[in-house]
């Protein structure tokens, strides 16, 4: 009995000490306190900063649950769109139709049902049209809210609002023909200047100013559009008249310098200026900035006027002598016929299982060089099995439908390595004669 009571006291003391230890750990942040079981609904809105009178734009209605338990089945979300716009359609984030469950005036209402805790943000994409008789800088007010039958400890993120402003030039934009480039590539930029159809004056005299990336990163290569502007070394400028309901396109090219390191981002932005005669105010509109990224492929290599050498894992070594290229040039390699033989090949010659393309880029592709380049090709015994190694020759053609032509005699040939020179790039392949030739007896008639 005494022993049992003694053990019970030890047990109580142990539990008490353990509890004190847990309290100390929670207080000092070593252990996290048990999470409160709550829901925490939130809603956000994203709209363009500027929209075009008489045009259309998309509202992104975002919502979700930051709480630790599932929100009730009656969870709802709604948006009140501006009086000056008309609802057109709504979709989910996968572009599937998602019409409102209820529309009352300018308020669109959806019952979204259970919202899982910590779940990814949901989106409702709402397309609306803008009245065409609005004045410049009219503020379009959007508001949204989310709720359910459950209590929430935090209602601060259950409502939100955002304002977009009308702008005569909001339909204008700038874009690049791609957004991933390598050094020595060329970027084509297009700027579209558009005046709203409902613009009261009917036309605007517009000045476009485009600040280019730093000169050490990119080089202006000229205008390619019918309308051209000026270039002062850092900015492009164009002036012209734009009519309502019509668009003017400006286009120019820029070359990425060959020594720009990979992972560099090139950003530039255009601005429009015009005089609003009705309000006697000078207006300005900034187009969305355009960012392109510089990367480098493993099958590409940069070599400049001083020359250099590139050893590729395919077994090809390219040697570029000094002054063969005028600027830093990107050389690119691509193997050919890895799964099949070239068909047809040169008559009487057999494929030695080594074929490739070589390309060079210097603000566009170049094919000819100031001096011959050296191409060293490693080959294995399997590559030339059944072939006469002494007859190995490099052949080239200008495309799949072009005939093969011999590139000349090798400048060096040792077992497993053969070297040729070329002053141009195209498709190359290694061919040889057969190791054995069969001579048929000649029969002469009597």
Describe the structure.
The protein has three domains: 41-166, Immunoglobulin-like, CATH 2.60.40; 173-294, Sandwich (Immunoglobulin-like); 300-432, Chondroitinase Ac, Chain A, domain 3. Helices cover 6% and strands 47% of the residues. It has one helix and 33 strands. A hairpin with a 3-residue loop joins strand 26 (350-361) and strand 27 (365-366). The longest helix is centred in the first third of the chain and has 26 residues, at 2-27.
How many DSSP helices?
A: 1
Using only C-alpha atoms, the radius of gyration works out to 35 Å
What top-tier CATH class of the largest domain fits best? Mainly Beta
CATH topology of the largest domain: Chondroitinase Ac, Chain A, domain 3
Largest sheet: 7 strands, mixed
What is the averaged pLDDT score? 88
Give the class from helix and strand content and strand pairing: mainly beta
Give the termini distance in whole angstroms. 135 Å
Shape: elongated
Number of domains: 3
Please name the CATH architecture of the largest domain: Sandwich
Strand % is: over 45%
- Counting DSSP E segments of at least 2 residues, the number of strands comes to 33
- Low-pLDDT runs of 5+ residues are 1-27, 29-34
Q: Helix proportion of residues, in percent?
A: under 10%
């Amino acid at each position: 009995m005494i022993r049992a009571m003694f053990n019970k006291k030890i047990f109580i003391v142990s539990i008490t000490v353990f509890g004190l230890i847990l309290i100390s750990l929670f207080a000092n942040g070593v252990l996290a306190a048990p999470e409160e079981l709550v829901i925490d609904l939130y809603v956000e809105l994203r709209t363009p900063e500027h929209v075009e009178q008489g045009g259309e734009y998309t509202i992104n209605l975002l919502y979700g649950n930051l709480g630790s338990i599932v929100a009730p089945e009656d969870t709802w979300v709604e948006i009140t769109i501006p009086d000056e716009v008309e609802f057109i359609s709504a979709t989910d984030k996968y572009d599937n139709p998602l019409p409102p469950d209820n529309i009352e005036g300018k308020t669109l209402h959806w019952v979204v049902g259970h919202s899982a805790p910590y779940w990814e943000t949901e989106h409702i994409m709402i397309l609306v049209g803008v009245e065409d008789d609005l004045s410049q800088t009219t503020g379009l007010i959007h508001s949204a809210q989310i709720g359910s039958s459950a209590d929430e400890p935090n209602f601060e993120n259950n409502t939100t609002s955002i304002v977009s402003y009308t702008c005569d030039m909001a339909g204008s934009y700038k874009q690049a023909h791609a957004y991933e480039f390598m050094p020595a590539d060329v970027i084509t930029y297009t700027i579209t200047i558009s005046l709203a159809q409902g613009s009261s004056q009917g036309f605007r005299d517009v000045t476009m100013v485009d600040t280019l990336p730093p000169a050490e990163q990119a080089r202006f290569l000229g205008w390619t559009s019918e309308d051209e502007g000026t270039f002062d070394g850092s900015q492009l400028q164009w002036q012209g008249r734009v009519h309502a309901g019509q668009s003017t396109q400006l286009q120019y090219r820029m070359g990425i310098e060959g020594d720009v390191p990979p992972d560099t981002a090139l950003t530039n932005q255009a601005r429009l200026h015009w005089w609003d005669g009705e309000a006697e105010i000078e207006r300005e509109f900034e187009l969305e900035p355009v960012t392109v990224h510089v990367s480098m492929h493993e099958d590409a290599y940069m070599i400049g006027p001083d020359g250099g050498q590139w050893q590729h894992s395919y077994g090809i070594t390219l040697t570029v002598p000094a002054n063969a290229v005028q600027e830093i040039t990107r050389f690119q390699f691509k193997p050919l016929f890895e799964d099949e033989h070239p068909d047809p090949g040169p008559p009487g010659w057999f494929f030695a299982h080594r074929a490739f393309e070589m390309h060079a880029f210097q603000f566009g592709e170049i094919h000819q060089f100031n001096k011959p380049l050296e191409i060293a090709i490693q080959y294995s015994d399997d590559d030339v099995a059944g072939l006469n190694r002494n007859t190995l020759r490099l052949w080239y053609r200008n495309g799949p439908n072009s005939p093969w032509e011999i590139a000349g005699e090798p400048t060096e040939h040792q077992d497993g390595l053969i070297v040729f020179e070329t002053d141009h790039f195209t498709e190359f392949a290694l061919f040889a004669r057969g190791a054995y030739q069969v001579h048929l007896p000649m029969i002469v008639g009597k």
